[in-house]
Amino acid sequence: MPDEHERMMRANQANWDARTPVHLASRFYGLGTSLDPERWFAAWEWEDLGELAGRDVLHLQCHLGTETIAFAGRGARAVGLDISEASVKAAADIAGRAGADVEYVRANVYDAVEALGGRRFDVVYTGKGALCYLPDLDRWAATVAQLLRPGGRLYIAEFHPLLNSLGPKPAEGEGSELLLRHDYLGRGTAVHRSGRYTYTDGPPVQGATDSYEWMHGLGEVVGALVGAGLRIERLRESDELPWPRWPEMNRTPSGWWRLPDSSPRIPLLYGLLARR
C-alpha cells in the first residue's frame, strides 16, 4: 500500500476511535434500549444469504458489531473485524451483554488474512458505509478471495454510489432537493473530510476529526471482484434506507424508509452476492 494511503487509513483509524463513544451514546444506534441487531438488515439480505446455522461468517469493517451479533443469532460462528481498537472493544462489550458468542479482531481489512491466521470462511459480509474507506478495491477483492473457502460467498449490502453522490448525510442548511454534490465515479484520489460531528446524533467528536473516503462506482466494485476470480451471482438495487436520510421519507412496512411517490425512484442501497 502506498505510504500516503497508509497515512490516510491511520487517520481513519484514529477518527473511528474518536467516533466510537459518540456512537455508543447515540439514539441512532439505540444501544441504550433493547438491542435489535436485525433492524439493520433488509429482508432481501437474509434471502440472498440463505441458511447460516453452522456456517463460519466473517463481518469486515464491523464497527460496533451489531450486524455481527445478528449472524450469531442465526446460528453462525461469527467473527467481526475492524480497524478501530475502540470499536472492537465496544463491540465485544455489546455482544457480551447480549449473550452473543462473537469473536472480534482488530486489524486493517487489508491485513485480515494474517490477522485471522489464514482461517477461511463460508461467508464474508461487508457494507453499509464500509467500501468508501478503502483506497484500493482490487487489493480488497483479492483479500476477500483469500478469506473465502472454495464455494464460499461474499455478500455486500452497501450504500449505492448514487446516494454517496447525493451525500449520505444532509449538509448544513441543505434543502430536500435531490442534488448531485459528489463524484459517482472515483478519480483514485481521496476526499478529505474534517467533521466535528458524525452521521449520528450526539455531541462533537473529541480528538481526531480528519477522515478520508474514496468513491467507488458499481462498475469498479464488480470489476474488482471479477478480477479476483469471484463470480457475480446476484445484484439488487433498493430504494429503501434503514434511516430517514431526507425529512420527507416515509416509513415502510419493513420498518425502513423510502422517498415519497412524488420523488424520483432512485437506488439508495445495493446488495451483491458473489461466489469464489
UniProtKB/TrEMBL annotation:
The UniProt GO MF terms for this protein read: methyltransferase activity
Q: Does the keyword DNA repair apply?
A: no
A Pfam family assignment: Methyltransf_12
GO terms under biological process:
methylation
Q: Which InterPro entries match?
A: Methyltransf_12, SAM-dependent_MTases_sf
Q: Where is the signal peptide?
A: none
What keywords does the record list, in alphabetical order? Answer: Methyltransferase, Transferase
Q: Methyltransferase type domain spans which residues?
A: 58-154
Is Nucleotidyltransferase one of the keywords? no
In which domain of life is the source organism classified? Bacteria
Please give the name of this protein: Methyltransferase
Name the source organism: Streptomyces flaveus
Tell me the organism's taxonomic lineage: Bacteria, Bacillati, Actinomycetota, Actinomycetes, Kitasatosporales
